[in-house]
Specification:
By secondary structure, the chain is mostly helical. The chain has two domains: about 5-90; about 105-170, no CATH class. The protein has helices at about 5-25, 40-55, 75-80, 80-90, 105-125, 140-150, 170; strands spanning about 130-135, 155-160. The protein is globular, with a radius of gyration of 21 Å.
Length: about 190
Amino acid sequence: MDDPFLEYIHVINKTDNYANYNIQQRPNDNKIPWSIPTLPEIKAFPGLTYQMGISRKPSTKLYRSTDPIMVTPIFSSTLNRDRYTQILRYLHFSDHVNEPRQEPFLQRAAWLLQNFVRNCIEGANIADQGYHGYTDNSFTSPNLYLEFWENYETAACGTVRTSRTSLPKNIMCQKPVNISVRGDLRFRQKGDF
């Protein structure tokens, strides 16, 4: 999808499908009636979420506080608390019913990651400048790293979980050798990759 408008419509449709599916499964779990997210709501949601990471508060209720000491007006003027929580609960980027289930998180995030790479990496002009990317165990993937290396000449490294199915079996099935305390590590490298 090259049109940002269509990307938002995609997220709106997948979120609505997931919400309707969950509401049918557990009708008593919803305190307020569901309505399909609007384009402005879906566009505002990531910005508010990022802002919550920048402007930290001890409780999510305080983001919409009217207390002069705690007030951050952008939150209450953009999305009310219940609607933000409702979108957060049902936000989806893929078809949860028809998608294959090999790597559930990566399947759900694949569309988002592809768009992230296209919009941020390609648009940020960081390729071929010697940067190294670092990921946590949710995004560590040899295929992703290989794509970064082959297409952008950008190196990457990250931590892994032993349960990750996309990693070579000879690495993940072996009991770690000479690793006795927390913090010891093993690494793998293939040529320049």
